Amino acid sequence: MSHQKPFVISLKLQTIATQLNELKQELQQAEQDQLSQLAQHKITSLAALGAQLNERRKALGLDIATLELQTGISASTLKRLFKDPEQVKFGSVYAVAAALGVSLCAVV
């Protein structure tokens, strides 16, 4: 029996090594998927930011009047924000993004 013990241990180590390599590959794939997803949502212009916020609003089924009530930002300002965020204060853009569940973050 003592002859089999090193063999069994060796097989277990090989199995663990294989599982570890599979986990490493899964992690690498998950990281690549995450980077790809970030690239898809990358904001390339202020107009794109406004469009993305407006798309999110629509996806949530919120009309402008409801968003106005939630944020305290006037409907006219919201419309300007969705067309050209450069025309409104950053605080307003931030408040709308937060209300829509959109995180504004810097990735460097």
TrEMBL record:
Domain HTH cro/C1-type, residue spans: 53-107
Gene3D superfamilies the UniProt entry points to: lambda repressor-like DNA-binding domains
Pfam families: HTH_3
Upper taxonomic lineage: Bacteria, Pseudomonadati, Pseudomonadota, Gammaproteobacteria, Enterobacterales
Keywords, alphabetical: Coiled coil
The protein's name: Helix-turn-helix domain-containing protein
InterPro entries, alphabetized: Cro/C1-type_HTH, Lambda_DNA-bd_dom_sf
Coiled coil: 13-40
Keyword Ion transport recorded: no
PROSITE patterns: HTH_CROC1
Organism this protein belongs to: Erwinia aphidicola
